[in-house]
From TrEMBL:
Family per record: Belongs to the TRAPP small subunits family. BET5 subfamily.
Compartment annotation: Endoplasmic reticulum; Golgi apparatus, cis-Golgi network
Lineage: Eukaryota, Viridiplantae, Streptophyta, Embryophyta, Tracheophyta
Family annotation (SMART domains): Sybindin (SM01399)
GO biological process annotation, one example: endoplasmic reticulum to Golgi vesicle-mediated transport
Keyword field: Endoplasmic reticulum, ER-Golgi transport, Golgi apparatus, Transport
Protein name in UniProt: Trafficking protein particle complex subunit
Coiled coil spans: none
Record bears the keyword Transport: yes
UniProt-listed InterPro entries: Longin-like_dom_sf, TRAPPC
Gene Ontology cellular-component annotations: endoplasmic reticulum; Golgi apparatus; TRAPP complex
Organism encoding this protein: Prunus dulcis
Keyword Transport: yes
Amino acid sequence: MQFFGGTEISPVSAGVNGVGEQRPHDQDHKLMFGLLFSLKSLTAKMDPTTPDKANLGVPQLPGQGCSFHSFRTNTYKLTFMESPSGIKIILVTHPRTGDLRESLKYIYNLYVEYVVKNPLYTPGTPIRCELFNTTLDQYVRSIS
């Protein structure tokens, strides 16, 4: 999991815990992965249209079962998209931000154009494409 952006697009600093201490970014990655895994599992279990209910905690394939797009707290809104290939795109914004699903699709298209089609990129490695980072940063700033 790789994070892009900074405090300009997030209502709170991503690296500060509740008591104002810095926490490692790998802890943020684990927390975000656990949150998304749990929410995907919960929404699949609660899906009223599927007679076969998956057990809570059982991994789901991308596009399998019921999915969620966003949730809101009193301090932030998390918007989520998972591509058919399993790429997860997450935006954390102000709680009053509107629907960002089209923005997530646009970000995925940027990823395909600048990363997937880049012959120097090896899948599964951290993204080190300056053009992608710059374009993504400009786009995210334009929607915030």
